[in-house]
Specification:
Elements: E1 3-6, E2 12-15, H1 18-21, E3 27-29, H2 32-39, H3 44-53, H4 66-77, E4 88-89, H5 100-110, H6 116-124, E5 130-131, H7 132-139, H8 143-157, E6 162-167, E7 170-175
Amino acid sequence: MKTFTIDTDNNITAYTSREAAGNDAGERFSSEEELATAAAEWPGTRLIEIWNSLPGVQPVRKFTSRKVAVRRIWAAIQNLEATAGEPTRTPAAQARGKGNKAARADLAAKSHSGTKTEQVIALLKQPSGATLKQIMATTSWQAHSVRGFISGQLAKKMGLRVKSFERNGERVYAIR
């Protein structure tokens, strides 16, 4: 039965049997249930890092539940070829905090020419920024939609640093 180990750097190693795994450092598991037991103590971010480090998977930001994460990871590692001699390893997960800039750049690159996202970014990059009313007029959105878009899409998903301040009694946003 194929056995896997996972070390503290999230390297998953496949072996042909428990005996072949020997004294390999890390947690050992041979079934989805054993993986679930091991993962019960892990933070959710570790499950995401493990998933995103697996070859050929679509990266995710979160899972709907720990059970879903374990099931998907288990299914994905079944493709790892185990050998008696040299173990098959997944690439180590990126160090925490690294790779986020690349992901943000990908999100920014995916925005299409002339989209409302680009229009809002262009407004916010002006030296004087843009008022809430200017953004509302450009996008035809209501105030709460503009604020949610700036907070969720621009700041959180795209990682842009958006400053908010008041000028002459009006709310102004700017990308610095």
